[in-house]
Specification:
ten-stranded mixed β-sheet; 2 domains; Urease, subunit C, domain 1; alpha/beta; five-stranded parallel β-sheet; TIM Barrel
Length: 415
């Protein structure tokens, strides 16, 4: 449908603009978000019981690695850097079980992991050579315009064309240069910022993952350079029993975003990651992390980190129609956002196209379920969804050999 309206809701265009009433989507973009806006075509009345947000952006996921259960250090122990974890993973029953699934199987599971949590834009932290044939066919937007180096250290996995060449690609193509940095406490990890400065590639293109070993000086250096950071709190605590100095990052003005990492170490999805990050912040500092900060980290800040802020991240007129509609459980729209769970999602729209929603929104698809969509039940609600996640879930169970439960898929496929 080329044009339609969501009316009588609370529209959270950005952290600075929250208004009642309507939003118009036309030809995949936000045509209007003004009070009492009205477009042609179908109009869905939200009944004053729903809040409309930009869809979420996950800045760090390992889409080949989203499998359960978690794999981590022995009780009472933690890793010095990521390498011992990788060795443990490859020796684990989880990895053996996961190997029954193809790379394509895992990527599609990961796409639905993100979709069912409202994250319709994501970065897969694997090299372009590995995923370039897979990402365009997924039911979400997995970014393809990015540069990548695993980590600037001796135990780097040598992904991509090399650290300096990948950074040059980012500059030329106006996209992020993404790398793990200071994921641990050995000497090399602690010198991550110094290594990037020495190579003269620490700048606004950098999206730095984890950053748990940063000194106060490192934080100020990164802030001055205009680099972005992906905070993966749950994964950090599980592997290392510590996370980055998040309050100092925020105080320094660093563009902080949120990533889930893979479910093998992190939260099951970005909604759970936000709730965990807020709980951890209270434990670390004895004060609350404002819900508005979490909203910005997973929308506008993340779009900026991806060099996509002119396209998405807010519901401003002219931007892509990337929308998440949540049940209004809290009068404060930002608290409602920060406490949301999968069961609270009522509708998801990607570039103007509904990809998941309650059946009351089916008029946006022409009044009946079109080809390429399926119906499932989530929290006892009939929902439409793009693709066939239930069929894929069942097929994966057959390959694995038993009824595997993946907590990021909020339905039972055989029902």
């Amino acid at each position: 449908m080329s044009e339609y309206t969501l009316s009588n809701g609370i529209i959270v265009s950005s952290a600075k603009k929250v208004e009642a009433d309507s939003i118009v989507i036309k030809e995949g973009k936000i045509a209007s978000n003004a009070k009492s806006a009205a477009g042609t075509g179908v109009s869905i009345n939200l009944g004053g019981a729903s809040i409309v947000y930009p869809s979420l952006i996950n800045t760090h996921d390992h889409m080949q690695g989203n499998y359960l259960p978690r794999v981590g250090p022995r009780p009472g122990n933690y890793y010095l850097n990521w390498l011992p974890w990788d060795n443990d993973l490859k020796a684990s029953d989880t990895f053996i079980e996961r190997s029954h699934l193809s790379r394509e199987d895992l990527y599609l599971l990961s796409a639905y992991k993100n979709l069912f949590s409202g994250a319709l834009t994501v970065n897969d932290h694997f090299p372009r050579a590995l995923n370039r044939e897979i990402l365009p066919g997924l039911p979400i937007r997995a970014i393809t315009n990015y540069a990548l180096s695993h980590e600037a250290s001796s135990y780097d996995l040598k992904w991509g064309e090399g650290v300096e060449q990948e950074h040059k690609f980012a500059v030329k193509n106006k996209c992020p240069f993404i790398t793990h940095l200071s994921e641990g406490f050995d000497e090399e990890a602690m010198n991550g910022v110094r290594n990037l400065k020495k190579l003269r590639i620490l700048d606004k293109h950098c999206l730095l993952i984890h950053c748990i070993g940063f000194s106060d000086e490192d934080i100020q250096t990164v802030a001055k350079a205009g680099a972005s950071v992906s905070w993966c709190a749950a994964s950090n605590m599980f592997m290392f029993n510590v996370t980055c100095k998040i309050r100092k990052f925020l105080q320094a003005g660093v563009n902080v975003t949120i990533g889930t990492d893979s479910s093998a170490t992190g939260s099951i999805n970005i909604l759970a990651e936000m709730r965990y990050a807020r709980k951890l912040y209270r434990e670390m500092y004895g004060e609350d992390l404002p819900a508005k900060n979490l909203f910005e980290m997973t929308t506008a800040n993340a779009a900026k980190a991806f060099w996509m802020d002119k396209e998405t991240g807010t519901l401003d007129q002219g931007k892509s129609g990337d929308i998440m509609v949540l049940k209004a459980n809290n009068d404060d729209p930002f608290e409602n956002f920060a406490g949301a769970e999968m069961r609270d999602i009522e509708l998801l729209i990607l570039a103007g196209k509904p990809v998941y929603g309650e059946t009351r929104f089916i008029d946006l698809l022409g009044g009946e379920l079109p080809d390429g969509y399926a119906q499932i039940r989530v929290n006892n609600r009939p929902m439409f969804v793009i693709g066939d996640p239930a069929g894929h879930y069942s097929m994966c169970r057959k390959k694995i050999g038993f009824k595997k439960v993946l907590d990021y898929l909020p339905f039972e496929p055989e029902v």
